[in-house]
Amino acid sequence: MTFRSNIRHSALPTTVVWDPALTAYNFGPGHPMAPDRLELTARLAAALGLFDHEHVAVEPPEPATDVELHTVHSADYVAAVRRVSEDPTTPDEAHGLGTEDDPAFRGMHEASARLAGGSLLAASALLSGSAVRAVNFSGGMHHAARDRASGFCIYNDAALAVQRLLDGGVRKVAYIDVDAHHGDGTQNIFWNDPRVLTISLHESGLSLFPGTGFANEIGGPDAQGMAVNVALPAWTEDAAWLRAFHAVVPQLVGAFEPEVIVSQHGCDSHRLDPLTHLNLSVDGQREAAAAVASLASRYCGNRWIATGGGGYEVTGVVPRAWSHLIGMVAQRPVPVSTPVPEAWRSYVRERYGITAPELMGDGVDTWWRSWEVGYDPNDAVDRSIMATRKEVFPLHGLDPWFD
């Protein structure tokens, strides 16, 4: 398709999806998916001035309609969410509603639909030309399946955004998922759709939910090679993670030539996250966002929709990681040496009794070893990389050893 463009100056028009109403996505006290992480991110991003740039528009989303939700979710499932939303005392475990991971709560449908509406808003902004880039840090609910809730996810907003783009005339979309957990829901929704390349880098399913996402999951019969999975061993650090990303993602995105990138930036890969076993820093997560930004610039005319996702270290990690993401999307990257605004740190101290980090980075070296220096069969990460490359690279006309 031909994208409309309202660009009048060098900074790309950027939509940031935010409204305090998004914190209604709340599974209750003690649940890891604490809505505070959204409020703290918005507060930190505002304190850093990321919402104040002339080319940045902060837009509140409306709840997705049932018709919109039906583009990726079954009508029976949406109806089940509505029933549980109205009466949380009658769970529907057949649809994954009212489980330990996804407890029922009154208003669940509207809260989940609003979050989904945020990513639909982002996709519509790109299609209309009112924005070239967009970020919905409250989104990224990548476990939600066509007819079932899973892993804290009710409606799959990322899949909805991809489908909105396709329905709007976009020929090819690359979905890149860097959450610590496999992006199984999004992968499976587009399993047999050759217009969508889904790439997920995650902790191996041998040690982490949902137990899927291995190299041999490559897509349906009409979309062989369109599902790509890099299953990384527990305790993988920044350098190895970035090596894996750069050994797989740029090559496939270049071969696929998408018109838009949609990405999921769960920051639960951080070494302090209480639910996972990866060992990344905020600095490394920022590098991942920068790498996706570079791919959008190189292959997609800068068209990029970024979402949040997992991330359960609520005060020290999530707000910094997603403020970096907002900065990357808006072309106003925040240096890792930037002091965290004292007003924000005081707010965290007074409200949570926690001393927040002083800087926007963790003070680590994110240098990584390029794949071109050679494959090490004794390295577990290299073996994971090679397993993926052997499975999917030939299907894209790429050499798994040298490209």
Automatic annotation (TrEMBL):
Single biological process term from Gene Ontology? acetoin catabolic process
Work out whether the entry's keyword set contains Lipid metabolism: no
Pathway assignment: Ketone degradation; acetoin degradation
Question: Which molecular-function annotations from GO does this UniProt entry contain?
Answer: histone deacetylase activity
Report which residue ranges the record marks as coiled coil: none
Judging by the UniProt lineage, the source's domain of life is: Bacteria
Write out the entry's keywords from A to Z. Acetoin catabolism
For this protein, the record's InterPro entries field holds: AcuC, HDACs, His_deacetylse_dom, His_deacetylse_dom_sf, Ureohydrolase_dom_sf
The signal peptide annotation in the UniProt record is none
Q: Where is the Histone deacetylase domain?
A: 31-326
Keyword Transmembrane helix annotated: no
Q: Kindly give the PANTHER family that the UniProt entry links to this protein.
A: HISTONE DEACETYLASE HDAC1, HISTONE DEACETYLASE HDAC1-RELATED
User: What is this protein's name?
Assistant: Acetoin utilization protein AcuC
